[in-house]
Amino acid sequence: MEVAIEKPLHKIRRFRKQSFEAAQRYPGYDATRDLDDYDDSLPTFKGKTLIQLIAEKSNGEQATSVLDIGCGAGNAILGIAESFPSVDVSGISGTDLRGLLKPPIRTKTQNLDYRIGDIQKTANIFWDKKFDLIVSVYAFIYLGDKPNAIRQCYKLLKPDGIMLIPEALDITQEEADKLQRFWSEMEIETEIGCNPEDKSLGLKYFNIAIKKNPEIEKLPMPFTYNAIPYNGVVLRQYEVKL
Ligand SMILES: C[S@@+](CC[C@H](N)C(=O)[O-])C[C@H]1O[C@@H](n2cnc3c(N)ncnc32)[C@H](O)[C@@H]1O
164 forms bridges with which residues in the sheet? Predict the structure, then answer.
């Protein structure tokens, strides 16, 4: 199915730059947030939490890999590496925040692949890897172009890989339902649920979990958006275009 998507390129570039600059300020960031905190904060898929999904995926013959988008100091990826030594663990952060954790993670000896760059270009930054699980906690909230970041994550999933992303979209319940139906008609399994606790900035945030359909390489993202200035940072409010 072909979907028309509005794509004003100059605006997208400006938003990327603004959101990247905004991401350099993280009020109240707790560098000690760990794997158990992630397990509590992330959406589940078919009732399974992140830890259960890693355990399930890493039980098979194939090597398992996990990516944390906006991994901060890296405490959660450290937790995954320690609890599941056979899993290949990666993280991406806008700035190098490793020094905030005492002692800091040691990317060489602890076998953690920590890369620095813009989440909105994750697919380029991890051009050499694909993942069974992709997660993100308190990072999407900073992004100007969330649909683009979701699209990048989907691209990086292995066949049947799953991404769990809270605060992924600023849409209404009705739009979330439409979106879920739209993806399910394409046999892309998703779970979209409202996060009732996060209504800061007057926006509703919908958590999303998506499983990659191996037949569909590029996730259709039927969105338009409105730009809203907030405290000097321009936010986007999305509208599902179906
Ligand atoms: C508040 S910290 C959260 C860290 C960790 N996920 C946690 O929950 O403890 C925000 C993280 O998102 C990253 N981030 C936000 N926007 C980003 C962007 N556009 N590109 C890269 N990283 C970004 C920051 O660099 C940082 O690592």
Answer: 135, 209
Q: 91 and 112 in contact (C-beta within 8 Å)?
A: yes
Q: Which residue has the tokens 């990048």?
A: 152
For residue 173, list its beta bridge partners.
none
Task: Give me 82's structure tokens.
Answer: 């320690």
Work out the average pLDDT over 193-220: 82
User: Which of 71, 116, 198 has most ligand 1 atoms within 8 Å of CB, for mutation?
Assistant: 71
Closest Cα to atom 8 of ligand 1: 137
Per-residue confidence band for 190, with pLDDT thresholds at 50, 70 and 90: very high
pLDDT at 207: 92
Q: How far is CA 151 from the centre of its chain?
A: 10
Q: 């996990």: which residue's tokens?
A: 66
Token readout for 237 is 């409010």
pLDDT tens-place string over residues 139-187: 998 887 889 999 999 999 999 999 999 888 888 889 999 999 999 999 9
Least Cα distance to 164 among 40, 75, 58, 12 occurs for 40
pLDDT of res. 109: 83
pTM (2 d.p.)? 0.88
DSSP state of 48: B
CATH architecture of 9-240: 3-Layer(aba) Sandwich (3.40)
**Pocket of ligand 1 contains residue 149 by CB under 6 Å:** no
- How far is it, in rounded angstroms, from Cα 138 to Cα 206? 13
Integer Cα distance of 146 and 140 in angstroms:
7
Instruction: Report domain extents, the chain.
Output: 9-240
